[in-house]
Amino acid sequence: MPEIHPDIVAQVILLAREAEDSGSSTARAELSAFIAGLTEDDALALVAIAWIGRESFAPEEWDEALSTARDEARSPTESYLAGLPQLAGYLEDGLEALGISAGEAEEDLM
Fold first, then answer.
1. Which long-range contacts (CB under 8 A, 24 or more apart) does 90-93 make?
2. Entry's Pfam families (predicted)?
């Protein structure tokens, strides 16, 4: 299971949704900057959650998803995630698949 705090994922979801909805380079830069400020472990956890959300891995394959994210990291994680279409939806779906309420985490931020 992810060790990243749901509030961090929720913040990325909100920033990604803003970047996706507006198409603004400023919003995309803000998303990238937020992710760049995370620890490496948290950034890789975001990748694993997104992969579970897009069904590249099943929730019970968490350790494998995280290991693969670490092994395949070739470019800055913030660039990869900010360029991932539908990032907000993948993260929401990934959290839900892992038994964590994305909606509650997002509400906590508001």
1. 90/49, 90/50, 90/51, 90/53, 90/54, 91/9, 91/12, 91/13, 91/16, 91/46, 91/49, 91/50, 91/53, 92/13, 92/53, 93/52, 93/53, 93/54
2. DUF3775
